[in-house]
Structure of Crotonase/enoyl-CoA hydratase family protein:
Amino acid sequence: MAQVLVERDGAVMQLTLNRPKRLNAITSTMLATIVDACAEAAVDDDIRCIVITGAEGNFSAGADLRAMAGDPDDEGAADLAQRRITDSRYVERGFLKIGRPPKPIIAAVEGVCIAGGTEILLGTDIRVAGRSARFGLSEARWSLYPNMGSPVRLPRQISYTRAAEILLTGRHLHAEEAERIGLIGRVVEDGEALTTAREIADQISANGPLAVEAILATIRESSGLTEDEGFARELDRSRAVFASEDAKEGPRAFAEKRAPNFQRR
């Protein structure tokens, strides 16, 4: 059984964490599959957006420490010995801590999204959750450290004091609180997160891909920069977009009242 289902539907790549009997707890095999799928999406111009979700009503309960330690009952596990030699940071890539593809990543969350699940969430760009979804970074409760980027990312994505409370208490949040503090962007009825995420992905995929990727890169790059440094990055990105043929096609299509035909050039 594949531990991550990788599916293509038009311009959208969907990754489904697929260990439902263990609440989609994350294994090394899953991380390697996510890395490979993201690498494919990064170079495939036909892929405009990535959606990541979990199978059978849960996103992920976090890292499966037994499986990552080589549990023989880890169904579908891959032999990753060579991978650890050739790509020593694949775990960080799989958790979306580093090396994210230049395409928007949308999370569709149902059920539990705890510990490593929330760490993956923080590497996504747009987040939709079912009303009963729960989030949290519980590591401190067990004298562990959430080292896939959360202590750095969370205070940048929500307020400092909220981030400190979440990280230091390890308490869990329901979806409505997560939306209120900005951890997720939208709450929908249970069972509708994936449908809503796919609708957003389709909207993004219909836009100019050069513009989408440039805007996304600026959003990601500028969070740790001064305003002036961010403006300099913005200027470089915007010049490249405005110099493209797609930047001519968009206004032309608007004037002619038709759908644009973007060519990524």
